[in-house]
Every structure is written in C-alpha cells, then in structure tokens.
Amino acid sequence: RDFVIVGGGIMGAMMALRLAESASGSILLVEKSYPGAGSTGKSGAILRQHYSHKVTIGMARESLYWYCGFEDQYGLDISFNRPGMAFICKETDRENLERNVQLQQSLGVDTTVIDSQALRELEPAGSFADEECAAWEPEAGNVNPVQTVHAVLDCAIRAGADVRIGVRVTGFLRDGDRIQGIELDDGNCVAAGMVIVAAGPWAGKLLEEAGVPLPLQTLRPEQAYFEPPAGAREKRLIYGDLTNGLYWKPELAGWTRVGLLDMNDDAVVDDPDHYDEGVSGEFISKCRERLSRRLPHYCMSPSWGGVAALYTVTPDSHPLIGPVPGLEGIWVVSGFSGHGFKMAPAVGRGVAAAIGNDQAGHFEANFFAPDRFTRKAPIEVSYGYGILG
Ligand SMILES: Cc1cc2nc3c(=O)[nH]c(=O)nc-3n(C[C@H](O)[C@H](O)[C@H](O)COP(=O)(O)OP(=O)(O)OC[C@H]3O[C@@H](n4cnc5c(N)ncnc54)[C@H](O)[C@@H]3O)c2cc1C
C-alpha cells in the first residue's frame, strides 16, 4: 500500500477520501472497532468559525462550506443544520472576543459582536446581564457525526480506498527508524509507504510503544441531555457561554445537549478501551443549574441522563499533525482537544496535499507540527478555555 491509515474516526475517513480522490496512491484504512467508535461518534459536531488564528479560522471556514455542500456533491445525508451560534462572554474576555471577531470578519466570516439588548432580542427566553456581549455567527451549524463518518467512509470506498473494520493495529514493521508498514491482531502485516496514525485517544500509546512519547493525554468529558419543557419559547440556537463555562446545542431528537468548557474538570483516562461511559447525578444537576441561569425554564426540565466520551488533548489544545519526530514514513494526526470535527475536511485535504496529490487549502503543516513543543513554539490560545481555540 502507498498509505495505511490507522483509525476510522472522522480524521481517518476524511484523509482516506481526500487521498483517494486525488489519486495519490493505494489506500488502506484499518479500524479496530467500528467507524466513529472513538471521539467522533459522541461528538457535538458543532461547526463554527469562531477561532483566534488565521489558520484555524480558514480551516473551519473551508470545512463548513465542504460539510454544507456534501449532500449535493455526494448524494448522502449528513443532517447538516444551521441554527447559528452565539459566544456569550464576560467583561474580562470582551477584548479578546472583539479582536477575534475582527480577524474573522477580515477573513470573510459573517459574524458580529452584539450587546446584551441584541442578545435578548435574539433569545427572548434568555437571561443576560447588561455588561455581557456575544459574538453572533449565523452561519454556524452542526451535522450528525455518526451519519457523517459513515458517509465519508462510503465515499472514500467509492473513490477507491480499502477499509478493514474490526482489525486492530498492534505495532509497526520497521527498519531502524524507518516505518515500513503495520502489524495486525489477526496475525497479518501490511507493507506501507506511509503510515498515518489517526487513532484518536489510542494514538499516544501506539506511538509510545514505537518508542516515541508525544504530549497526548486522554480526558473524559461528560455531557447531559435535557428535554425543553413543553411550550418553552426558546430559539433552538447553539451557545458557547464563557460566563458560565458551558455550551449547549439542540439535538436532532429535540433534546438539548449540555457540556462544560473547562477541561480541567475532566478526569484523565489511562485506558481508552475501558472507561466509565456513564455520568453522575451531580454532573446533571450542575449542568441544569448553569443552563437555567441562562434559560430559566430548564430548572423544570427532565434530564435524559448523559454520556461520557473521550478527548485527546495536547498542552496547547491544538492537534499534532505531521511527521512523527525521530521516525520516517509515519505521520500522526491526533490531539484535536475537543474541537476537531469542524476541521476534519480541511485536515483531510491538507494532509493529502502534504503527502499526496491534493491541492493545498488553509491547512499549514508548520502550524501543527508535532515537534512544536520541543521547539518551545506552542500555539497561543485566546480564552481561558483551550477547547475554544
Ligand atoms: C463529547 C465531545 C464533543 C465534541 N464536540 C465537538 C464539536 O462540537 N465540534 C468539533 O469540531 N469537535 C468536537 N469534538 C471533537 C471531535 O469530535 C474530535 O476532535 C474528532 O472526532 C476526533 O476524530 P479522530 O478521527 O481524530 O479520532 P476518533 O474519533 O477517536 O477516531 C479514532 C479511531 O481510531 C480507532 N483506533 C484506535 N486505535 C486503533 C488501532 N490500534 N487499530 C485500529 N483502529 C484504531 C478507534 O477505534 C477510533 O474509531 C467533540 C468531542 C467529544 C468527545
């Protein structure tokens, strides 16, 4: 094979599609469980362009348009939906918010800073303090992550990629520091010109076993689901609420999904194959209380429980994308720190341009280089919450 991709999450699927479409060579994607079994399947899949760097804004924008046009281009439904998103901020974040919005506007993003009066008009059921403001992004939306990863993989297969599901990559074939393929748990080996490790929360361990420890850590964020009370006049928008440290979004089932922004609250997971997927009553109460500060009708809302998932995080909350330091013939694409879904089309295209025949988009390899921490050149983030980028 020219390319072997380890992992059938949204990143692996996108890279398989872009490499196949650009006729870059023969491709095999190997997934140990099922498509979306890692972070992807439980993703909020919120697609926003609110970032603080030119590169990430450009990639989010490129990807949003790609997701938006997916059904027309490929004829498969991914439940693309565009309710718009408001980033509400407290006074201390206002300067950053305004600067970021200006940068986004200069790059063509339809976004504005609105004051509390405009916020009240946008969400009459909401409660906002006079000194609060928000970045309003009407183009923001979301997709169904499970439908999307399956659809993208189907398209990759149609474009010529091979996909093997239910087989685990256990190690690498190597000649000194040159990786030459993969070893599988069914006893087979596959030779490869290039191996791309897109194994999400499992990537760190796999590479550590190959002798390369990278700054990747797995966390366990929780989400709770609430049903809006009958008759609630709430607009079904997506929110990031920096004042209260949470985000919420309408789910297709009619529920509201709530998660917290502070990754410091999330437990560290040592073994992503075995972690507790349930959430506590305490967490659900915390989410209900914080959400009710904004939308008081949720204090009377039943919860449908919640689910814990996995983030793969790096010290600067941005992914590692590029050659694995110290080895040849292998790339890592992991560490998306809870905000990668919206970037995946641009990542797929960027990687396919860097190592295959695709045309470059907004991705900049140097920006995400895995060795940036040893070079003491981490990416600076604007807000107190790294997940916001
Ligand atoms: C709760 C939650 C909410 C989120 N919300 C958003 C959001 O609103 N917007 C956004 O942009 N991002 C969001 N994210 C982040 C986004 O979902 C992730 O960044 C993205 O899904 C990562 O995809 P991935 O392909 O890198 O990893 P994963 O989806 O984890 O895929 C890795 C795959 O590799 C497979 N694998 C692992 N090891 C092996 C092996 N040895 N052999 C074969 N296969 C292997 C796994 O089974 C898995 O399927 C959220 C994440 C979570 C958890």
Task: Walk me through what this model shows.
- By secondary structure, the protein is an alpha+beta fold.
- It folds into 2 domains: 208 residues, FAD/NAD(P)-binding domain (3-Layer(bba) Sandwich); 155 residues, D-Amino Acid Oxidase, Chain A, domain 2, CATH 3.30.9.10.
- Helices cover 26% and strands 24% of the residues.
- The strands form 5 sheets. An 8-stranded mixed sheet has the order 5-6-4-15-16-17-14-19, with helices on both faces. Strands 8-2-1-12-22-21 form a 6-stranded mixed sheet.
- A hairpin with a 5-residue loop joins strand 16 and strand 17.
- Helix 1 runs parallel beside helix 5 and helix 2 packs across helix 8.
- The two termini are 35 Å apart.
- The mean pLDDT is 95.
- The site of flavin-adenine dinucleotide (FAD) has 40 residues, from helix 1 and strand 2.
- Flavin-adenine dinucleotide binds next to helix 1 and strand 2.
